[in-house]
User: Fold Ornithine carbamoyltransferase from Alteromonas stellipolaris.
Amino acid sequence: MKQDLLTFSNWTPEAMHKLLNLAVEIKQSPSSYSNVLAGKSVVALFEKPSLRTRVSFDIGINRLGGHMVYLDSQGGKLAGREDAVDMAANLACWADAIVARVFSHNTLEQFSLASKVPVVNALCDKYHPCQALADYLTVFERFGKTQGITMAYIGDGNNVTHSLLIAGALLGCNQVVVTPEGHECDAEIVAHAKKLAEQTGATIVESHDVSAANGADVIYADTWLSMGDETPLADIKAKFMPYQVNEALMESTGASYVMHCQPAHRDLEITGSLIDSDKSLLMQQAENRMHGQNAILTQLLSA
Ligand code: CP
Ligand code: NVA
Assistant:
């Protein structure tokens, strides 16, 4: 039966570790995996803009011996010219997998039902699993483990935060999530992550106070306004500025590294000087997008 990757929510710690190990293996021995997608085609469908996800899938698929067809949303949401289910069923007639970046998680669920080939979530309103896998690969490379490491996410509780919580819970990585009031994570997703964390002993703490991040190994930032959020920056800037990830915060928390999924907004959610500093893991994360996604495709397409 075909397997999708819409979220890691229904994964086991063992499966999550196995996927992370596969990403390490593919990164270390790319030539051993250069034919795993030979003769296969992947359609990548984007309702929202992308730099990292689009390019890392395209080049990554090429390195696995496969071929990617990029489709943008042709100026609007996917549904309109035809229903999402019909679009997915058509794509599955030709493609071996569908990668999709969409506004609504519901669209991915429809794709999953209608498509006989695997569907991979390349970001939706609720989750960004490919990002989380690359991020924990980065943590693993830096610390030699994910179990017992503490990551503190500071900013808007969003799709990236949700996937970090879920995957982190499975990998035994402790999470501190610090948000301004009114910008907390989805309560159901946090509750689910806490349930998953019972299997690994990982802790999850939510706070509105940045001092909750004291003692963290890694600080993580993301944009204050996710794609599709039309709130004017001026309306939230004063509220978010105390949550800026900067050198003073790195000093007060004692964290060794800073992470950001990018695109980053210099001197808003993170200072430009910190991005450029030796504490920054941003480019390692970006590189690891490709290795993580290649592990996902290798696993789904050889299932
Ligand atoms: N981090 C990430 O998903 O970047 P893009 O939006 O550029 O793909
Ligand atoms: N939270 C951000 C992530 C971008 C990669 C967004 O959804 O726009």
About this structure: The first helix runs from residue 13 to 28. Residues 50-53, 123, 131, 261-263 surround phosphoric acid mono(formamide)ester (ligand 1) (CB under 6 Å).
